[in-house]
Amino acid sequence: MFKKTPRVEVPIKIPFYDVDQMRIVWHGHYVKYFERARCELLDLFDYGYASMEQSGYLWPIIDLRAKYIKSATFNQVIVVVAELVEYENRLKINYEILDQASGQRLHKAHSIQVAVAMASGEMQYVSPAIVKERLQCYGYL
Question: Could you give the CA distance from residue 26 to residue 15 in angstroms, rounded to a whole number?
């Protein structure tokens, strides 16, 4: 259980190159927004992708589920909220995309990542000890 939940809020102004001719964000770009927030979230406890590799593990995403509620549009400022909700056997991150001005929810999603040992290529059924160590070190556990 977390003492405090690792959570970030990342504001993003929707650029023109992410929208279609109706000035609506193309659905595939939301995954890119999740990735930006996920990277900032992992950096909170110093376990970003470079640290993962240095610790001998890769963390592929094995599941991504998204619920599109309302479209984001050109020049709109959105806030991508990412929150780590599981860490013991996998990393499960919940996401929300909110309109910054109104707070209205536009999107919700989650991703699941599992550890894979670089040396053997084997999936780990329990998260490596370094995950818990980093979360403890930064006061989340």
Answer: 11
